[in-house]
Amino acid sequence: MKKPAALSASLVAVKGAAAPVHDVPSRSPVLQAPKAEQDSRLQPLNFRVSAEFRREFKTYAAAHDFKLNELLKRAFESYRKQRGD
User: Fold this and answer.
1) Whole-angstrom Cα distance, residue 44 to residue 67?
2) Torsion over CA of 43, 53, 48 and 83, rounded to 10 degrees?
3) What is d(CA 53, CA 47) in angstroms, rounded to the nearest whole number?
4) Is residue 77 part of a domain?
5) pTM
């Protein structure tokens, strides 16, 4: 049986001590702010649906590049518009 290789100190991760890789561009805080603000306003909506409906809904959303909540919002808006509400 082989003896495991010894790890050098530079290969062991220490929480909170990670250094950024020099050739990776940093994220712009300006681009992150609107998403953070939007997420803070979101509330959970929990209900149960059949497995078949869940699969169809998620498949449709993925095929059309929608997030699940965006597809639900658009479907509800369309329903209200169709009813004249």
Assistant:
1) 14
2) 60
3) 12
4) yes
5) 0.54
Whether 14 maps to a domain, the answer reads no
CB atoms within 10 A of CB 54: 12
- The answer to the question of residue 39 being in a domain is no
Summarised one tens digit per residue, pLDDT across range 23-62 is: 777 666 555 556 666 678 889 999 999 999 999 999 999 9
In a domain, 81, yes or no: yes
Question: Greatest CA separation found in the chain?
Answer: 75
Containing structural domain, residue 83: 49-85
Q: From CA 9, how far away is CA 32, in angstroms rounded? A: 33
- Quote the tokens at residue 46: 């929990």
Give me 17's structure tokens. Answer: 């001590």
Tokens of 21: 């890789």
